[in-house]
Write a structure and sequence with these properties.
Length: 584
């Protein structure tokens, strides 16, 4: 161990020395059994498992302590469960077979390197159909009783999308997902088994004879940047280099969504050209840097071109991180027009096919598109993804939830966007609305009232019967056959030009970067593989950095609510495997 570097890099070494002393008693010249790089959800799950298995753990993060939990804290907390009691209570008939049919139809695995991702996917879906809910529940995790229906697909039984509602929203949203895992790692820290090292940025993985045996990096200056805001990358005033040794290193550093240069570089041709301007759905720390560092140590990245970006992004009027965008989780009723005012083809309806819609919109030659809707639709159908956008659920406030979700009024956070958001226009008449739309785009391109009116009027004629040929209206009626949607998610079909449903609202939508579907290639024990298929000894990866397991267990697309669970499943696997490998 390089004592000079270790001392020089110290913010507080008391805990490390305690861990180190016990290890040295076992004759090991290391600082801990396991080092975990990244204290997001995957890192918390991995660290908790390793520490509870009796290993000593160092949990490093470049961000300050107040950002513990990473992206998961900001998340909506939507989780994919299969055949849950909540589904059964709502008469949803789900099964492992149906979920696997949906998963494979959505993933579209078609590459030789999909073998391990596909096996991770199978293990994950089985877990979601069995132990996942009870494992979380015995840690105190709870979900809202109404199950959401995300990514509905709309093609064929074997195609993309969820055949049934499976999106279980955490009571407490993202912070409610982080809470049990934070509790577990803090308990391990109190027991002296785990030490947090915040503001420790890893710059390299160290190796001896081809075995990863630690990390080297820079201690960054202290930061009081509020959670989620960018913290400085300035080294601590003096002696900022550090080096730490362990028998196993687990990389849980997140994806690339905050680094638009990397997103553009990896953007696949099948999605057209990347937009000139995108919003960020993730904090700046989701920078992909540690994935490159892991590649330098021999780890292989696969499926780099697979990514999950949203097409319903709106500019946050109250941003936390750079280019902060919020994703609308839309119900199915809004009329979706491209930038020139042409209606999107079926089944590209709101909330049906994220990447199909992205590919279509990239072919229009413009970066934005439009929702046109009514006050009635926005009140019932707009949910905003993000813990801070759902104070009722995040604060576990039943009364506020009932008022805001069932009261028929526009929820407060949505109304704030209507009033203050740069992408929202309200109008009593369609002509006035289109005028407002042209004002916010500066007429690039100029929308023609007659083109928009023709789409709206044609759609409205179809809304007058309980049957018809308009695919979107058929889908809306189908959705209302599900009690959860009828109660709180899907407005009764009505004419957009019905004055009683108004005023009219238009929302300009942007592409919003979020999830990285490909990543570090890992085996079923979360060991990072080289391009020759052999593991890099001592090295593990989990969470978004590892494509949520295997280097891309989602394949090309996701059923939603599968990312947090993917972090938990792969983090748990990595923590247990590293603990087993360092036993004795
Ligand atoms: C607004 C929002 C809503 C979402 N909603 C949902 C949802 O409803 N359902 C769902 O399933 N998913 C959702 N997600 C996605 C999900 O939250 C993420 O995919 C998941 O939390 C990623 O966790 P992670 O641990 O892999 O990475 P992260 O949370 O990104 O954590 C990685 C950590 O590693 C640290 N790090 C990186 N590099 C280094 C380095 N070199 N040295 C030291 N530390 C480093 C970072 O600072 C960070 O703290 C949402 C995400 C967001 C942002």
């Amino acid at each position: 161990m390089n004592e000079t570097l270790r001392r020089a890099g110290a913010l507080s070494w008391a805990g490390v020395n305690t861990l180190g002393q016990s290890l040295r008693k076992r004759g090991l010249d290391i600082d801990a059994d396991v080092i975990v790089v990244g204290a997001g959800l995957a890192g918390l799950a991995a660290a908790a498992e390793a520490a509870e298995a009796g290993r000593t753990v160092l949990l490093l993060d470049q961000e300050p302590e107040q950002s513990l939990g990473g992206q998961a804290w900001w998340s909506f907390g939507g989780l994919f469960f299969v055949d849950s009691p909540e589904q059964r209570r709502l008469r949803i008939k789900d099964s492992l077979d149906l979920a696997w049919q949906d998963w494979t139809g959505t993933a579209g695995f078609d590459r030789p390197e999909d073998e391990l991702p596909r096996r991770w996917a199978r293990a994950y879906v089985e877990w979601a159909a069995t132990e996942k809910r009870s494992w979380l529940r015995q840690m105190g995790h709870r979900v809202v009783p109404v199950v959401g229906w995300a990514e509905r697909g709309g093609d064929q039984a074997t195609g993309h999308g969820n055949s049934v509602p499976r999106f279980h929203i955490t009571w407490g949203t993202g912070p409610g997902v982080v809470e049990p895992f934070e509790r577990r790692v803090r308990a391990a820290a109190a027991d002296g088994r785990l030490k947090f090292l915040f503001r420790h940025r890893v710059d390299a993985l160290t190796m001896t004879n081809g075995v990863v045996d630690g990390v080297a990096g820079t201690v960054l200056e202290p930061s009081d940047a509020p959670r989620g805001t960018p913290s400085s990358r300035t080294p601590a005033a003096q002696g900022s280099a550090f080096e730490l040794r362990a028998q196993a290193v687990i990389v849980t550093s997140g994806g690339i969504g905050g680094n638009h240069d990397l997103v553009r570089k990896a953007w696949p041709e099948r999605l057209g050209s990347p937009p000139a301007r995108m919003l960020s759905g993730v904090p700046a720390h989701v920078d992909g840097r540690m994935i490159e560092i892991t590649e330098q140590a021999g780890g292989q990245v696969i499926n780099r071109d697979r990514m999950w970006h949203y097409v319903e992004g709106i500019t946050n009027w109250n941003p936390v991180w750079p280019l902060h965008g919020i994703r609308i989780l839309p119900g199915p009723s809004s009329l979706w027009l491209d930038a020139t005012g042409r209606r999107l083809p079926g089944p590209l309806y709101p909330g049906f096919d994220t990447l199909g819609t992205l590919a279509h919109l990239r072919g229009t030659g413009y970066d934005h598109s439009w929702f046109i809707l009514t006050r009635k639709i926005i009140a019932r159908e707009f949910a905003l993804s993000g813990s801070e956008q759902n104070p009722d659920l995040t604060g576990r406030d039943r009364r506020a939830m009932l008022t805001s979700r069932f009261g028929g009024r526009v929820p407060g956070p949505v109304q704030a966007f209507v009033d203050r958001g740069a992408d929202f226009v309200t109008g009593r008449s369609l002509a006035g609305l289109v005028d407002g739309m042209n004002t916010i785009t500066g007429g690039a391109p100029r929308l023609d009232v007659a083109t928009v009116r023709a789409e709206v009027v044609a759609r409205d004629r179809e809304a007058m019967n309980p049957f018809g040929k308009d695919g979107q209206l058929i889908a809306v009626r189908g959705a209302r056959a599900y009690l959860g949607d009828r109660l709180m998610r899907v407005a009764r079909p009505h004419r957009l030009l019905d004055p009683a449903a108004g005023p009219l609202i238009a929302v300009r939508l942007h592409v919003l970067t979020r999830k990285t579907l490909g990543g570090l290639h890992t085996d079923l024990s979360a060991r990072v593989l080289r391009s020759d298929g052999n593991p890099v000894p001592g090295l593990y990866a989990a969470g978004e950095a590892a494509g949520f397991g295997g280097g891309g267990m989602h394949g090309y697309r996701s059923l939603e609510g599968t990312f947090l669970g993917g972090c938990l499943f792969s983090g748990r696997t990595a923590g247990r495997a590293a603990a087993a490998a360092t036993a004795g």
